[in-house]
């Protein structure tokens, strides 16, 4: 199996979303993330993801920064480890 055979079409960020890495679990459905734009934000795990998708430290996620409070954001997507590795290979994230 070549590298192109394993390539998947991944969800890419919309205009108002950025890639981020979870750096710290804060509890109460909150995590600390380091965004691709260089800003550390406190991100909220929305109710629709709380029990279905487990988010851990070092996970790659998509966050949607709040436009009225830049140091906060909402998590909109979590990438699997293989998907995160593909994003790194393709140069989307470091």
From TrEMBL:
Designated name of the protein: Translation initiation factor 1A
Record keywords, A-Z: Initiation factor, Protein biosynthesis
Keyword Protein biosynthesis: yes
A GO MF label: RNA binding
Pfam families hit by this protein: eIF-1a
Domain S1-like: 6-80
Domain of life of the organism encoding this protein: Archaea
Stored InterPro entries: NA-bd_OB-fold, RNA-binding_domain_S1_IF1, TIF_eIF-1A, TIF_eIF-1A_CS
Function: Seems to be required for maximal rate of protein biosynthesis. Enhances ribosome dissociation into subunits and stabilizes the binding of the initiator Met-tRNA(I) to 40 S ribosomal subunits.
Family label: Belongs to the eIF-1A family.
Protein's organism: Natronocalculus amylovorans
């Amino acid at each position: 199996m070549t590298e192109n055979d394993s390539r998947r079409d991944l969800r890419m960020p919309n205009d108002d979303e950025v890639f981020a890495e979870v750096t710290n679990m804060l509890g109460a459905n909150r995590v600390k993330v380091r965004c691709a734009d260089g800003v550390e934000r406190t991100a909220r795990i929305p109710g629709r993801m709380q029990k279905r998708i487990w988010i851990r430290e070092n996970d790659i996620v998509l966050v949607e920064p709040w436009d009225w409070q830049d140091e906060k954001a909402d998590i909109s997507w979590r990438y699997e480890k293989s998907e995160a590795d593909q994003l790194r290979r393709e140069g989307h994230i470091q």
